[in-house]
Amino acid sequence: MGCPLHFFFRALRGLGLVLFYYAFSIGITFYNKWLMKGFHFPLFMTLVHLVIIFCFSALARCVLHHWQGKPRVVLGWPAYLYKVAPTALATVLDIGLSNWSFLFITISLYTMTKSSAVLFILFFSLVFKLEEPNPSLILVVLLIASGLFMFTYESTQFNLEGFILVLMASFLGGIRWTLTQLLMQKAELGLQNPIDTMYHLQPLMFIGLFPLFLYNEGLSLCSSEKLFRVGSVSPVLYSLLTLSVGGTLAFGLGFSEFLLVSRTSSLTLSIAGIFKEVCTLVLAAEFMGDKMSSINWLGFVVCLCGISLHVGLKTCSSKGNTSSLRPTSSKGTTDMELPLLQRNNEEEEEEEEEQEVLYWAQQQL
Fold first, then answer.
1. Element holding 239 (H helix, E strand)
2. 94-116 pLDDT, tens per residue?
3. Which of 43, 44, 149, 257 is the one with CA 20 to 30 A from 28?
4. How large is the C-alpha radius of gyration of the chain?
5. Measuring CA to CA, how many Å separate 318 from each of 2, 98, 118, 131, 325?
6. What's 295's DSSP letter?
7. Among 156, 200, 197, which residue's Cα sits nearest to residue 180?
8. Could you tell me the pTM of the whole model?
9. How many structural domains compose the chain?
């Protein structure tokens, strides 16, 4: 009686965490698209999000410090500039260009094109020798590339400028997640906890994006009635409020991913991500007026098959060679957990899997 009840509560908990992840992941996509309809400054929006994420990360680190009674990792300048800066630059350009593309393209085209990041992740994984070339990877690439071509073929809502922006973001996303994996696998840096990783990335991300913001949006934002050239305080407060909501969703997305994989498994997050793409496209067609033909839907199915195959291969590989996937650290696993995530005695059998997924969570888009 106790055993089935235990599995029931674990399944119920997993479902709740998946829905929690969906709320932030799907929510921020639709929210940013809605915001871009009236606020045409995606790079400034991204900068505000970075500040909010940094503040929440700093607060979370303080909570961890007081809970565990030991200081959090703080990198010195040489390691910070040479090890973290490349990851930060690739990350902020990925996010910035993704938000920028919302000015031009539909949610469905964004979702589909962003899925092509798997292609670039595989490419850079081969370049950095994180993956071994094999026929299965070639099949994954062909399926995803064919699906993307079919999805954009004769699309009535296709926009070349937005498509190029999000494709560039996907390319940078491949660099981003490969560098993130390398960063988190360096035990001497001590950045296995995603909270510490986000804390160290945000300042460099802000500095990296700020020049592009000044060049592209600086003058127009200064003369905009949304923030600076206003006749009353209400529009400014409204703009800051809407931007703050987006920043909170952005932090919540990262935290919900970490929470999901820490309490279930990396496979759960990967499968949830696939169904999330389906939910996003269905919701976009239903509520945002996105139009998709039969060949577009077929292309989406083909692309999902490629992504599913990639997830299956990664899962088999991680089970067969766990030590090569999870970050190695001389510290105990308690340093990698939030207070909410402390294990009890009944969950010790999940320890091996939960060590692996800290690295895997940072690879999700």
1. helix 233-263
2. 999 999 999 998 888 888 888 77
3. 149
4. 21
5. 31, 30, 17, 12, 6
6. H
7. 197
8. 0.76
9. 1
